[in-house]
Amino acid sequence: MVDVDPDLLAGDRWQARLDDLAARHRVPGFQVGLLTPDGGVRVLAAGLAGLATGVEVTPHTLFHYGSITKVWITTLVLQLVDEGLLTLDAKVVDVLPDFRLADPEHGPAITVRHLLTHTSGIDGDLFTDTGDDDGCLEGYVASLADAAAVTGAGGPLSYSNSGFCVAGRIVEVLRGTTWNAVLAERICAPLELSRVITLTRDAPLFRTAIGHLRHPETGELMPTPNWQLPRSLGPAGLITGDSADLLRFTAAHLRDGVGLNGERVLSAESARLMRSVQVDLSGLLSTRIGWGLGWTLSDWGAAVAVEHNGSTSGQLAALHSFPELGVAVCVLTNSEYGPALTDELVDLVGADLGLTRPRPAADPEAAQVDLAAVAGVYETPSLRCALTVQEGGLVLRITDKASGGGPAPCAVTPLARDRFEFELNGATREFALLTHDGVDHVFAGRLFRRTG
Question: 12: part of which helix (H) or strand (E)?
């Protein structure tokens, strides 16, 4: 455990910091929350929930958790394991007999563990809208019959939203109701989380944040045309709530399955298993230890972080928890520029806790990288990553194949023979090169296969 300064994220000094960060990073509004070892929850807010509405953000404003949802879905799956209704190494087709992918041999080889560790090989960026009724997730999983593969089952990690939708459908089948209802009954109710929603129709019941995107030509912020992603993507990233409830959920994981109110929602064994390394990335990236079940893990010097980020329609979320210290920090923002603000704010809080956020590390051989050999086109079934040499440097551009859209091109800096860093919306990130089945790939969370 760690001693937490009583003034951390409290008082006028911190509020002034938040207001300054919002202005400098072009983030209309955000929340930052802190869970302390004694179970205290502190939340500060700044700015506006939406530029068009002018409504202020309060500590109780709801933001999208985005892909942090995947930790909640994993918790629901591990509850099934705790009850003996499922095993992690069960084949998906044992629960969903009609589950199919484009390759007839691919689907039958996928296990539950593959889904929860992003090693299923399913194309991860299929945002198919199959309606807004209770059968939409069943329809989404059926639509995967045409889904292409990134790798075979159990291959290198490649982030898959689609895989978590399949996991959510497993929860529905084994519980006999929607995943939304299961979440409410088996996590929100016992932990007394009253400000968590999963359906767009419930948003007007609360003060909710609206996402903001960068205008492709001017760079100015504009409200998103849609408040939320299609309901069919629910288990991949549609949980919405405030910072306090996100931290209360996280507290149950830090306390090995027991909430702050004393209610157990997960066995200690399963809670620890979720934050144990299942896929080792330490030899690939300098900023990641690996993936657990649902969680990611990284080294912050004084402690290992068990964490996850989220990104939806112009909203960015970050959650960092430290089981060894009994603390957690979250930041919820409503801007595409959120990552830069989040990084700076987490650095400020981390400094008070004696923690150092991992940065991409450069090796002495970085200057010797042959940029021409790295340049090329790398693809997933849905995305294209182009690395080109321009004016003696490497430039990265990622585009969506269907829409042609994507972030602006950015400069790439070599860190080592097979590692590189780039800046996206003011935040520095890392990617790596790897060879799988004799083919070069770019690994940037997703696995991009070299095609040109």
Answer: helix 11-24
- Pull the structure tokens for residue 87: 């095993």
* Terminal CA-CA length for the chain: 51
Q: How many CA atoms lie within 13 A of 260 on its CB side?
A: 20
Which distant-in-sequence residues (6+ apart) come within 8 Å of 94 by Cβ?
A: none
Q: Which two tokens stand for residue 323?
A: 């089981």
Q: Is 282 a catalytic residue?
A: no
Mean pLDDT per 10-residue segment, the chain (452 residues)? 90 93 93 97 97 96 98 98 98 98 97 98 95 98 96 96 98 98 98 98 97 86 94 98 98 98 98 98 95 98 96 95 97 94 96 95 87 93 93 90 85 94 87 94 95 92
Question: What's the gap between Cα 194 and its chain centre?
Answer: 22
pLDDT for the residue 368 = 85
pLDDT for residue 353:
95
Nearest by Cα to 237 from 369, 125, 105: 125
DSSP state letter for 205 = G
- DSSP conformation letters of 103-172: STTTGGG-BHHHHHTT-S-B-S-------SSTTHHHHHHHHGGGPPBSS-TT-S----HHHHHHHHHHHH
Q: Are 313 and 238 in contact (CB under 8 A)?
A: no
| Distance in angstroms (rounded) separating the CA atoms of residues 23 and 412 | 27
Catalytic hit among 67, 158, 243, 286: 67
**CA separation for the pair 333, 341 (Å, rounded):** 9
